[in-house]
């Protein structure tokens, strides 16, 4: 059988480069036929030299000297995702910018291996409906959701008592609230267990990432919010658990590497031998520990879950306000504690905007961005 064509959106990022390592190891099964990035032309050029994809797209070229046959502008994501020679789209774009391509790929009946969790948070109902209506499959790349998918192994939501999502706790797990309030950008970028892009690394420090993941799990698996729990697990070895109605609990474990869930999203429900993943060494790990979330010191988690429960435009507002607030924090315009203050104020002010159509959600997303920008004064 010929190899399966893969479009990789966000090829130059943390998930994107992990995905290329996976594709390279399994080149008899998968071939990257389309690669896109935002503006990192040099990194994309190197990948093109290595993989010779049929399609290359750059959303915001940094110079005018772009190879003639490259796609440019926002539309290149949809172009890459809907090509006839593409069967699987790995969406590893960060933020709401990935939504259009996910919807287009699902409408074209493709499998979407989704790392881009923000778009499920923003428009979960629309994305899952689109997948259902057109026969496209939505398979999570996020390690927690990959774990849950593997533990569920096809069981229905009615068999599930509870989903238990693990969180590393981030760099401030053991810090007191005064210290957290004064955290610098470099403090927040020092994640204990995962090497990731800067946006999700900050989200892991505030626990916004875990709120996004609870909402993501709700949409992917159809489990109500009151049956999704979060527990802190600093070693990031147990990637998440499912407690079934009879009290049995299944957990999925593995070394903290995104290559594992990326490969599973490509092969699901099958598994492929992968010599790139070293043998699992429980004795070497020694002990695995679990603790409760310190909600008072990490208010972002409850805030995001409340936005998810509220539904409508609230999760889109939460997500967009968070994206903008994180960008301001990274640029030094907002203190760490200002992130949750901005997001909370935005959800209060705009969370009840209409959210029943894609246009309404895009309007809420834009309003939340304007609101936070105005608040920070830029
Ligand atoms: P990175 O910042 O490392 O990479 C983002 C990628 O998307 C880059 O290729 C970037 O291109 C591209 N990109 C950025 N903005 C846009 C845009 N507006 N339009 C098109 N492309 C864009 O992020 P990560 O790889 O860390 O994360 C990607 C997604 O995966 C996020 O949604 C994150 O939450 C999720 N995720 C990440 C994990 C990880 O381990 N990193 C784990 C689980 C989920 P360029 O290089 O040109 O800027
Ligand atoms: Mg995750």
From TrEMBL:
<feature type="domain" description="DXP reductoisomerase C-terminal">
    <location>
        <begin position="253"/>
        <end position="370"/>
    </location>
</feature>
<keyword id="KW-0413">Isomerase</keyword>
<feature type="binding site">
    <location>
        <position position="191"/>
    </location>
    <ligand>
        <name>1-deoxy-D-xylulose 5-phosphate</name>
    </ligand>
</feature>
<feature type="binding site">
    <location>
        <position position="213"/>
    </location>
    <ligand>
        <name>1-deoxy-D-xylulose 5-phosphate</name>
    </ligand>
</feature>
<feature type="binding site">
    <location>
        <position position="168"/>
    </location>
    <ligand>
        <name>1-deoxy-D-xylulose 5-phosphate</name>
    </ligand>
</feature>
<feature type="binding site">
    <location>
        <position position="213"/>
    </location>
    <ligand>
        <name>Mn(2+)</name>
    </ligand>
</feature>
<feature type="binding site">
    <location>
        <position position="204"/>
    </location>
    <ligand>
        <name>1-deoxy-D-xylulose 5-phosphate</name>
    </ligand>
</feature>
<dbReference type="GO" id="GO:0030145">
    <property type="term" value="F:manganese ion binding"/>
</dbReference>
<comment type="similarity">
    <text>Belongs to the DXR family.</text>
</comment>
<dbReference type="InterPro" id="IPR013512">
    <property type="entry name" value="DXP_reductoisomerase_N"/>
</dbReference>
<feature type="binding site">
    <location>
        <position position="117"/>
    </location>
    <ligand>
        <name>1-deoxy-D-xylulose 5-phosphate</name>
    </ligand>
</feature>
<feature type="binding site">
    <location>
        <position position="40"/>
    </location>
    <ligand>
        <name>NADPH</name>
    </ligand>
</feature>
<feature type="domain" description="1-deoxy-D-xylulose 5-phosphate reductoisomerase C-terminal">
    <location>
        <begin position="138"/>
        <end position="221"/>
    </location>
</feature>
<keyword id="KW-0560">Oxidoreductase</keyword>
<feature type="binding site">
    <location>
        <position position="197"/>
    </location>
    <ligand>
        <name>NADPH</name>
    </ligand>
</feature>
<feature type="binding site">
    <location>
        <position position="142"/>
    </location>
    <ligand>
        <name>Mn(2+)</name>
    </ligand>
</feature>
<feature type="binding site">
    <location>
        <position position="210"/>
    </location>
    <ligand>
        <name>1-deoxy-D-xylulose 5-phosphate</name>
    </ligand>
</feature>
<comment type="pathway">
    <text>Isoprenoid biosynthesis; isopentenyl diphosphate biosynthesis via DXP pathway; isopentenyl diphosphate from 1-deoxy-D-xylulose 5-phosphate: step 1/6.</text>
</comment>
<dbReference type="GO" id="GO:0070402">
    <property type="term" value="F:NADPH binding"/>
</dbReference>
<feature type="binding site">
    <location>
        <position position="12"/>
    </location>
    <ligand>
        <name>NADPH</name>
    </ligand>
</feature>
<dbReference type="InterPro" id="IPR036169">
    <property type="entry name" value="DXPR_C_sf"/>
</dbReference>
<dbReference type="Pfam" id="PF02670">
    <property type="entry name" value="DXP_reductoisom"/>
</dbReference>
<comment type="function">
    <text>Catalyzes the NADPH-dependent rearrangement and reduction of 1-deoxy-D-xylulose-5-phosphate (DXP) to 2-C-methyl-D-erythritol 4-phosphate (MEP).</text>
</comment>
<protein>
    <recommendedName>
        <fullName>1-deoxy-D-xylulose 5-phosphate reductoisomerase</fullName>
        <ecNumber>1.1.1.267</ecNumber>
    </recommendedName>
</protein>
<dbReference type="GO" id="GO:0030604">
    <property type="term" value="F:1-deoxy-D-xylulose-5-phosphate reductoisomerase activity"/>
</dbReference>
<feature type="binding site">
    <location>
        <position position="143"/>
    </location>
    <ligand>
        <name>1-deoxy-D-xylulose 5-phosphate</name>
    </ligand>
</feature>
<dbReference type="InterPro" id="IPR036291">
    <property type="entry name" value="NAD(P)-bd_dom_sf"/>
</dbReference>
<keyword id="KW-0464">Manganese</keyword>
<dbReference type="InterPro" id="IPR026877">
    <property type="entry name" value="DXPR_C"/>
</dbReference>
<feature type="binding site">
    <location>
        <position position="209"/>
    </location>
    <ligand>
        <name>1-deoxy-D-xylulose 5-phosphate</name>
    </ligand>
</feature>
<keyword id="KW-0479">Metal-binding</keyword>
<feature type="binding site">
    <location>
        <position position="144"/>
    </location>
    <ligand>
        <name>Mn(2+)</name>
    </ligand>
</feature>
<keyword id="KW-0460">Magnesium</keyword>
<feature type="binding site">
    <location>
        <position position="116"/>
    </location>
    <ligand>
        <name>NADPH</name>
    </ligand>
</feature>
<dbReference type="Pfam" id="PF13288">
    <property type="entry name" value="DXPR_C"/>
</dbReference>
<keyword id="KW-0521">NADP</keyword>
<feature type="binding site">
    <location>
        <position position="14"/>
    </location>
    <ligand>
        <name>NADPH</name>
    </ligand>
</feature>
<keyword id="KW-0414">Isoprene biosynthesis</keyword>
<dbReference type="InterPro" id="IPR003821">
    <property type="entry name" value="DXP_reductoisomerase"/>
</dbReference>
<feature type="binding site">
    <location>
        <position position="13"/>
    </location>
    <ligand>
        <name>NADPH</name>
    </ligand>
</feature>
<dbReference type="GO" id="GO:0051484">
    <property type="term" value="P:isopentenyl diphosphate biosynthetic process, methylerythritol 4-phosphate pathway involved in terpenoid biosynthetic process"/>
</dbReference>
<feature type="binding site">
    <location>
        <position position="144"/>
    </location>
    <ligand>
        <name>1-deoxy-D-xylulose 5-phosphate</name>
    </ligand>
</feature>
């Amino acid at each position: 059988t010929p190899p399966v064509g893969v479009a990789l959106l966000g090829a130059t990022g943390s998930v994107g480069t992990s995905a290329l390592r996976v594709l390279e190891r399994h080149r008899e099964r998968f071939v990257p036929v389309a690669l896109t990035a935002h503006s990192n032309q040099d990194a994309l050029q190197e990948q093109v030299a290595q993989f010779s994809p049929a399609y290359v797209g750059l959303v915001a070229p940094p110079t005018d000297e772009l190879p003639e046959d490259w796609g440019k502008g926002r539309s290149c994501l949809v172009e890459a995702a809907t090509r006839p020679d593409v069967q699987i789209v790995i969406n590893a774009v960060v933020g709401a910018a990935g939504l259009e391509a996910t919807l287009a790929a699902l409408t074209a009946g493709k499998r979407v291996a989704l790392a881009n969790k923000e778009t499920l948070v923003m428009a979960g109902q629309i994305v899952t409906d689109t997948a259902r209506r057109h026969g496209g499959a939505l398979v999570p790349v996020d390690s927690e959701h990959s774990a849950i998918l593997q533990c569920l192994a096809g069981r229905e939501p009615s068999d599930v008592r509870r989903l238990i999502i693990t969180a590393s706790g981030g760099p401030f797990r053991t810090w007191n609230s005064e210290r957290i309030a004064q955290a610098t950008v470099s403090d927040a970028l020092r994640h204990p267990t995962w090497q990731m892009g800067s946006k999700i690394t900050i989200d892991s420090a505030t626990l916004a990432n875990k709120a996004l993941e609870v909402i993501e799990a709700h949409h992917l698996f159809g489990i109500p919010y009151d049956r999704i729990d979060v527990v802190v697990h600093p070693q990031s070895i147990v990637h998440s658990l499912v407690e079934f109605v009879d009290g049995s609990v299944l957990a999925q474990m593995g070394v903290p590497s995104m290559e594992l869930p990326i490969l599973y999203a490509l092969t699901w429900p099958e598994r492929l031998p992968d010599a790139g993943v070293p043998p699992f060494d429980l004795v070497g790990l020694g002990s695995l520990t679990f603790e409760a979330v310190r909600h008072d010191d990490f208010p972002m988690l409850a805030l995001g879950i409340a936005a998810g429960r509220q539904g409508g435009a609230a999760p889109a507002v939460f997500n967009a306000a968070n994206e903008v607030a994180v960008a301001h924090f990274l640029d030094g315009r907002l203190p760490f504690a200002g992130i949750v203050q901005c997001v909370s104020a935005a959800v209060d002010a705009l969370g009840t905007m209409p959210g029943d159509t894609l246009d309404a959600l895009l309007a809420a997303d834009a309003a939340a961005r304007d609101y936070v920008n105005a608040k920070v004064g830029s």
